[in-house]
Specification:
Layout lengths: L1 H8 L3 E5 L2 H13 L5 E5 L5 E2 L2 E2 L13 E4 L3 H14 L4 E3 L14 H12 L4 E2 L6 E3 L4 E3 L12 E6 L2 H8 L7 E6 L8 H8 L5 E8 L5 H14 L3 E5 L4 H11 L6 H11 L2 E3 L2 H14 L7 E5 L2 H11 L11 H11 L9 E2 L8 H11 L6 E5 L11 H14 L3 E5 L7 H10 L2 E4 L1 H12 L19 E2 L2 H9 L8 E4 L5 H4 L7 E5 L11 E5 L4 H5 L7 E5 L6 E10 L3 E8 L3 H5 L2 E5 L4 H9 L4 H4 L10 H17 L4 E11 L4 E3 L2 E5 L1
Parallel strand pairs: 1-2, 1-5, 5-6, 6-7, 10-11, 10-12, 12-13, 13-14, 15-16, 15-17, 17-18, 18-19
Antiparallel strand pairs: 3-4, 8-9, 8-11, 20-30, 21-24, 22-23, 22-24, 25-26, 25-28, 26-27, 28-29, 28-30
């Protein structure tokens, strides 16, 4: 399929099928972009379209087109696609709507989309319900509207599911060269992952940005991630669907399965991509990656001529993962020579204005900050709208410092509107990254730092479970114990009057639980710190007649929740969180996808706030960290052995002591 997509993206002959303003605009945009291939309008009755002679039928074309824009109604589109496929056309942009995105309004939509896919057969089809694509490196625009792209020699590729967002992004004026823009619409056949994979074979693509409403076909995403990493092309994801409102809008818009946001984040991390949350940071991150690539660390330096700006930079970076390494003695000595005795030296640096207008001294001072261990140096400069000749020294100093050191340099306007476009062009030409906004610059740097190698293990894909049931706690613990999970010693007793004798061999204190009850604590079906003699009386107050008696786990350092949920969009999501009563209160959790190796689980565990307690907070005893990882791996082993039938598993709490990690309560729902 990749080779077929290349023919669609790099056509020499293009058919435009249909009339009206949309199809005419495709021809206008192709001509405006300087497309030097053949353009063949096709219309049943019109003799010409946008000043070009039209063919009455597809069968009248001189040859099978490399690409076609199908701009007719949804029913006629299916017939046209089938004809183009039979002719051997390279690929199609299907503009029409009214397919699967209208499910719930028009029950025929899904059937029409299935027919469209069958009609296309092996021919790539972009859409339906999409604008198409722009190839700005070769001058191709199968695009029925205005756009802001210009021809470039290299740049980033931007893929969206929303045509309107694609238009808006193409009109950015931030100094970001865009090589490709593509809209995917319903992705009936050609997915974002497949399209991005094809673009990775173009060496002129420096980074890829994806606006994603929902992931599907995870194997394609895994393949694309591996190829992107091998080719050194970083990927930025703007994933929507974190809120319930966004999830609802997503389904009604393109029928994409958004799934859980925790699952989406875990998948993005696993693929080695980085995620951002708004369009401005999306563009600034792509620009940074295009010009400087991913930052090798989170260590940054900041330079400004204002103490207020220095403080603002420090506060903006707080919690981002970026840090400001302190100045060395050599840096302090060199900066003192340039800036004089009146300047307090630190990182972030307020260099005052004693050397303002002296571009050479400014460059010398800035270069001192740009050491080998600093991944990016920012200088904050806001340009006035008029009479900004006095600010030219800052532009030249940034360029000079970058050229002399060879280190990454970014010039940041704290407010986006204070970065003039001619300065953007001058900085970009010299390799200095022009950032629009202080928050955006910090967020882009932090995002680029999160680019990593993908996990090579394929995600475990869940089976389709049509009906499921919750196992009893005793049964669930027995199943997990078979895979190595440490569970309390206990017995199941059917009659309350035989509890004392049955539990005589257990070591007090004991825990009594009623079985067959979903929320035991709320139902009064859990009693702690009992002796065998007290069991029967406690059982009579419980709304059940089957009981689990266990030896109570003591000496807890902390409690964890370890849960796993089948996520149809992303696989199995394994969540580790603060357990017991703190699960909802602390909102302290991290999620990964299964399978995950021990090093990934170790990192996930260390990211929890409660990990400080587990490690021995303020001299207290630490929990057995390795036992905790053993417990999580035991749960994962159980999951991998039951992927076809498992719906969810939860251990809450996993009681972590100095010696053990014990599953005190277990819930399993499976087919």
């Amino acid at each position: 399929m990749t080779d077929r997509i290349k023919r669609l993206l790099h056509p020499n002959t293009i058919a435009v099928i249909g009339g009206g303003v949309w199809c005419a605009e495709v021809i206008v945009q192709l001509e405006a972009f300087g497309f030097d291939g053949e353009i063949w309008p096709v219309h049943r009755t019109a003799s010409n379209l946008a000043g070009r002679a039209a063919f009455a039928r597809l069968e009248d074309l001189p040859a099978a087109p490399d690409a076609a824009f199908v701009g007719i109604n949804r029913h006629a589109s299916i017939d046209a696609v089938q004809c183009l496929s039979a002719m051997g056309a390279g690929g199609v942009v299907c503009f029409a709507s009214g397919f699967s995105e209208v499910l719930g309004k028009d029950t025929s939509g899904n059937d029409l989309q299935s027919r469209l896919v069958r009609a296309a057969s092996e021919m790539p089809i972009l859409g339906p319900n999409c604008y198409g694509f722009i190839n700005a490196v070769d001058g191709v625009a199968l695009w029925p509207d205005q756009h802001g792209c210009k021809k470039v020699t290299s740049g980033v590729a931007i893929l969206t599911q929303s045509s309107n967002i694609a238009i808006n992004l193409s009109n950015q004026m931030r100094g970001l060269p865009i090589a490709y823009v593509a809209t995917c619409g319903n992705m009936a056949q050609l997915s974002q992952a497949a399209l991005a994979r094809a673009m990775l074979d173009d060496p002129r693509v420096t980074a890829i940005g994806l606006h994603v409403e929902g992931f599907s076909d995870l194997r394609r995403w895994e393949d694309m991630a591996c190829v992107a990493h091998e080719k050194g092309v970083p990927v930025v994801i703007l994933k929507v669907g974190a809120s319930k409102n966004a999830q609802s809008a997503t389904v009604s818009h393109t029928a994409s399965l958004a799934g859980s946001d925790a699952g989406a984040q875990a998948l993005i991390d696993r693929l080695g991509f980085t995620r951002v949350h708004d369009l401005s940071v999306f563009l600034e991150t792509l620009k940074l990656l295009h010009m400087a690539g991913p930052l090798g660390s989170g260590q940054i330096a900041s330079i400004s001529c204002s103490g207020g700006e220095a403080s603002l930079m420090a506060d903006t970076a707080l919690g981002s993962g970026l840090t400001f390494p302190p100045l060395t003695s050599d840096q302090t000595r060199e900066l003192s020579e340039v800036l004089g005795p009146m300047v307090a030296l630190a990182n972030p640096l307020d260099y005052h204005t004693y050397i303002w207008r002296d571009a050479n001294k400014m460059a010398r001072a800035w270069a001192v900050m740009m050491t080998a261990d600093v991944a990016m140096t920012f200088t904050i400069v806001d340009y006035p709208h008029v009479n900004r000749h006095d600010w030219e020294c800052a532009t030249q100093a940034a360029i000079k410092a970058h050229l002399e050191t060879g280190r990454p340099m970014g010039l940041v306007a704290s407010l986006p509107e204070l970065m003039p476009l001619d300065v953007v062009e001058e900085l970009s030409s010299a390799g200095v990254v022009p950032f629009f906004g202080l928050r955006e610059a910090v967020a882009a740097a932090a995002a680029s730092m999160r680019i990593s190698a993908p996990v090579r293990l394929p995600v475990a894909l869940p089976g389709e479970v049509r009906a499921s049931a919750v196992l009893t706690e005793a049964s669930g613990k027995a199943q997990l114990a078979h895979y190595g999970l440490d569970v309390p010693v206990g017995i199941v007793v059917l009659e309350d009057n035989s509890l004392a004798s049955a539990a005589s061999k257990l070591k007090p204190p004991l825990v009594l639980k009623g079985l067959g009850i979903a929320h035991k604590s709320e139902a009064g079906a859990v009693r702690l710190n009992l002796t065998p003699e007290l069991l029967s009386a406690a059982a009579k107050k419980m709304p059940c007649n089957t009981f689990l008696v266990e030896e109570m786990v003591t000496g807890a350092v902390a409690e964890l929740l370890v849960g796993l949920t089948q996520d149809p969009a992303h696989g199995f999501v394994l969540t580790i969180a603060a357990g017991g009563v703190f699960t909802e209160l602390m909102e302290d959790k991290v999620s990964v996808l299964v399978p995950a190796d021990r090093s990934v689980l170790d990192l996930a565990l260390s990211r929890l706030k409660v990990s400080k307690v587990l490690s021995g907070f303020r001299g207290s005893d630490p929990a057995n960290w390795e036992a905790i990882l053993d417990a999580i791996e035991a749960l994962q082993s159980y999951v991998l052995a039951n992927v076809d039938v498992l719906v969810e598993v939860e251990i809450n709490p996993l009681i972590c002591t100095k010696e053990r990690a014990v599953a005190a309560d277990v819930l399993i729902r499976r087919g």
